[in-house]
Amino acid sequence: MKPGTTLRREDDHWVGSFAAMACPCELLIEECDESTARELLDVASRRAWWIEQKFSRYRDDNIVHAINAGNGRPVEVDDETANLVDFGATLTEHSEGGFDLTSGVLRRAWTFDGGSRVPDRAQVAELMKRVGWHRAKWNRPLLALEQGMEIDFGGIGKEYAVDTAVRDLLATNTQRSCVVNFGGDLAVTAARQDGRPWLIGVEGCDQPGVARNVLPLLRGAVATSGDSRRFVLHEGRRYSHILDARTGWPVLGAPRSITVLAQTCSEAGSMATLAMLKGVGAEDYLREQSYRFWIQA
Amino acid sequence: MAATDARNKREKPIGRALAAAACALLGRAGTASAADEPSAWSLDTAMLLYKESDSRVQDLSVAVSAIRDFGDQRLLGLSLTADTLTGASASGAIALDKPQTFTSPSGKATYSTPANEIPLDDTFKDTRFAASASWTQPLGRLYTGSAGLSVSGEYDYQHLGGNVSLARDFNKRNTTLSGGVAYSRDDIDPVGGAPTPLSQMPDVGVDFSKTGKQSKDVLDLLVGATQVLGRSTVVRVNYSYSRASGYLNDPYKFLSVVDPTTGDTIAHTPSAGLAGPDGVFLFESRPDSRTKQSVYAEMKHAFGRPVLELSYRYMTDDWNIDSHTLDGRLRWPLGASGYLEPHLRYYTQTAASFYRSSVPLGQSLPTYASSDFRLGQFDGVTAGIKYGFTSDSGSEWSARFEYYQQTGNVPDSMLIGNQLNREQFPDLKAIFLQLGYRFSL
User: Fold this and answer.
1) Are B173 and B180 in contact (CB under 8 A)?
2) Chain B hits for A31, Cβ within 8 Å
3) Contact B11 A285 (CB under 8 A)
4) Percentage of chain A surpassing pLDDT 90?
5) CA-CA distance, B354 to B336, in Å (whole number)?
6) Please, what is the average pLDDT of chain B?
7) CA–CA separation, B49 and A269 (whole Å)
């Protein structure tokens, strides 16, 4: 078994754990022998770490760094990166600019740590000059960002990692159902042999760590946007960590969290994000989409 | 409110676009999204046609069943069935080399059967409605409980039943033991009343000793075990005990009273001015209780994607009927979303101890007698094929076609004189066609 992973047996399944992409990752595996469980855990953790290494913005040896260091020059990207860029661009289009792969620089002004510091308007306005997909030149496979702009796959990378891990697990042909859970965004690989659903807890904001809703999941994926611990409370106003890339300011009136069920984790996560960007209209928006969802106001 | 305008503008659903974008991201063809989310309701609808050869029984039925998932493994099941039965069924009288006339069950008319044909009662037409409901939920961590109710009605038959069962998981859920009890009460109100067992078929319009409503009670007990063996094999065994008591006759079946030498039916002449049967016929008589025991074993094995299912059932009862059923089906995937499932079934049973083809005149009358072919010795073979297909929206279509052939046998020792030269047990051929559609709401 790979270093950094642990495996333990629960009542009727295995639980593999490791840390990747700055969050706790879990793999639940339907009852099977231990060597199969280890093999599956290796497959999932290898994929998580691979994605982390390739798309982390904290490294200087990967494609993200190459793009961000381009200084206006086009950088040729591989197919996988190009697919992610296309996906991000689609979300920008559907959110009319609210979601943006280049909005990561706003983190320099906003620290969502439960504290009360709100940046001054001038600082945000200055950073906004470096935000906006319309400023990027994307001509697959060539991507050029203006000097000072940065691309960040943080908003879609974790869900993508879940989906690719699912694909890798299915390719092992072990026929065991797994739940891939990377920091709360998760997917079920296949129906369980015994036909029972996995019971998935949706964490409550008021009591982190305590499942507020339990969701039986046969197949499909669940992703959550919003987090109980990531917000700024300023003068009695709660600023969610969902920043609107058009303004550089948090979406007003957004629920604390939105959880969406869909076929893939990428689909669920992007739906949750798009709904968040609707602010007070999030619930109405979700009702008009054909997804199951849970909102915590 | 500033947000009102934005909210009143109806949002265009973008689910499909997102799903497509996610599929493009993951480099694969789009698949169903609706089917993979636990839906509130999943519905199964089916239309079924059963048709016996020689325009005998035909049954057309429509069934809808629904399961509502309330989460936490709590399930509500509902089902509704309507079916129409038409055609003729064997009455139990023997074939003769001349036409025969009988009084119809209502007692108000007669009907005839051509020479050399096994007599059929073609006044048979019925419409049945059935409904059932069940509730299943976990009880504690390892137990699952279930309870259900069922009702059905025909113009001469009412059924009311209830059942409860409990299952417990062991051995990391690889073993499940279950037990259940079911009880039902059936009320029978035959057309023209229930004939007194072994009484003679009367002339038309003659009020004879018939009783009114009858009933029977059935108690079923079942214990079973399911065992998961390795990654791809599941084995299940059941034992069941069933005791029926009350009125167990078929009020429309009778026996021919025959000459002990020639084997031909004793002639009867209706009273002056009355229509009536031209032979002597006695209504059947069955014991008023029946205890059945059966064991059932089933194995499912997946060879990768293809799945083989084999089962065997042995049943024995205190009427001396023993039966064996062998059933096998193989589900073979066709492409990404279809499958083909050939099915083969073999059934054989011995005759009930009181089964006889006729009653010879002059011998002492038996307490119990029936010539209902379903209580005789016979074998049946079913061969069929099913095709199923899952559409992009996640709903499943299926079509099944089956052919059934039943061959019966009356031992020569039971036949008298001329009966040996005539066919006394009707062979039966039937087709079975089913169209199914399963979807979620």
Assistant:
1) no
2) 172-174, 228
3) yes
4) 47
5) 54
6) 87
7) 47
What sign does the dihedral A52-A57-A60-A65 (CA atoms) show? positive
High-pLDDT (> 70) share of chain B, %:
93
- Tell me, what amino acid is at A224? T
Do A266 and B172 lie within an 8 Å CB cutoff?
no
What residue type is A168 in one-letter code? D
Beta strand pairing status for B58-69 and B41-52?
Answer: antiparallel
Of B22, B33, B174, the CB nearest to A266: B22
- In one letter, which amino acid is A40? L
Compute the distance between CA of residue B277 and CA of residue B264 in angstroms, rounded to an integer: 15
Listed in sequence order, the DSSP H helices in chain A are 34-55, 63-68, 79-94, 121-128, 154-171, 265-276, 282-287
Q: Given B13, B69, B172, which is nearest A288 (Cβ)?
A: B13
Sign of the four-CA dihedral A272, A274, A279, A284: negative
Q: Could you read off the pLDDT of B35-57 as tens digits, one per residue?
A: 344 457 889 999 999 999 877 88
Are residues B173 and A12, on separate chains, in Cβ contact within 8 Å?
Answer: yes
Interchain CB contact of B18 with A (< 8 Å): yes
Q: B16-440: CATH homologous superfamily?
A: monomeric porin ompg (2.40.160.40)
- Name the token pair of A276: 């968040």
Q: Return averaged pLDDT per consecutive 10 residues of chain A, 297 residues in all.
A: 83 90 91 91 94 90 92 90 94 92 87 71 89 92 92 91 94 88 91 81 57 74 75 61 86 86 93 91 84 83
Give the start-to-end residue ranges of the domains of chain B: 16-440
CB–CB of A264 and B232 under 8 A? no
Contact B111, B273 (CB under 8 A): no
Classify residue B73 by burial, with Cβ atoms within 10 Å: 0-12, 13-18, 19+: middle
Q: For helices A265-276 and B15-25, what crossing angle results, to 10°?
A: 130
A293: tokens are 């969802």
What number of helices (H) and strands (E) belong to chain B? 2, 23
pLDDT band at B3 (very low <50, low <70, confident <90, very high): very low
B173 touches chain A (CB under 8 A): yes
Grouping H, G, I as helix, E, B as strand and the rest as coil, residue B401 is: strand
Q: Is B441 on the interface with A (CB under 8 A)?
A: no
CA separation for the pair A141, A138 (Å, rounded): 8
Name residues 25-54 of chain B within 8 A of A (Cβ).
25-28, 31-34, 36-38
pLDDT tens sequence across B227-238: 888 777 889 999
Residues of A in contact with B174 (CB under 8 A): 31
Give the count of beta carbons closer than 10 Å to the beta carbon of residue A33. Answer: 12
Q: What would the pLDDT profile of B308-342 be if each residue is shown by its tens digit? A: 999 999 999 999 999 999 999 999 988 777 899 99
Closest CA to B321 of B287, B272, B361: B287
Decide: B314 and B297 in contact? Cβ < 8 Å: no
Distance in Å, alpha carbon of A181 to nearest chain B alpha carbon: 17
Of A175, A219, A173, whose CA–CA distance to A196 is shortest? A219
Give the whole-angstrom CA distance, residue A260 versus residue A287: 11
